[in-house]
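Subject: sequence -> structure tokens, single chain

Hey, anyone have a minute? Need the predicted structure for the following. Not urgent.
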Amino acid sequence: MLQLAELQDRSHSSMKFTKLQGAGNDYLFLDGREIQEDWSSLAITMSDRHFGIGSDGIIVARKSQKAPIRMQMFNADGSEGEMCGNGLRCFVRYIVDEGMIESQTNDILVETGAGILSVQSIIQDNLIKRAKVNMGSPRFLSQEIPVNVPNLIDKNIWNYPLIVEGQTINVSCLSMGNPHAVTVINQPVNEILLEKIGPIIENLNIFPNRINFEIANIIDSTHINARVWERGSGITMACGTGACAIAVVTFLNGLTETEVEIQLPGGHLIVNWDGEGDVFLEGPIEEVFKGEWIGSHI
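Reply:
Had a minute. Here:
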């Protein structure tokens, strides 16, 4: 039988972490290359902004058979996400600072749930302060997102009307490695009750894997104001894949140029897409603090 001291040691063993944020989208970064944890439960506990550290989720460095390293991302509710653009930029800063990969490498390949993606670091004062990510190509077919609309199987879900709280919201859906529904509005984004309609849209039956929901207001052809309801995390200060989804939708609707700056509550992100091929996302990276988590995580 285990002694009390051993039990206490197992239930309160420590784990080092680094908190970083990109345009206010904050995550806790952990080294999981040599250990196995219940990452989902740990994400719920650590992400809690009252009883934990506080974050939009956790991101874990893992070994990869396909790339120098793998990024595994868990939302604040414990669900695993395929991809996170802001998180990926911060992840590269984390793995370089922690010596997990050659710091001299400018373009770093990272395995994600959305495939192997390339990140170009932008160094200022000997630190990675910004990064540009090749986010891959958008996918539009309903089964690729996925969206289940009986009469639109194998078709694009574009300007599709959703009835939410008695109002019609037209959304265009696509995958940027994870699912998105974007609506473009004429009024300021702060006038929309995102905290009310966001969770409803996220959990609609037509979205079998749930969905991220973005609202966008066009300022001019190169500037957009936006807010995001992230699947599994709720309202966040920014969302990298969401910014890419907004840029793609507005460009295809003839509203924006190939490069657009998207202002989110936490800061601005720059997205480049010429209408074909891969989408590129650039934005800031900031380390918030380092710490050691001592809690019941085993």
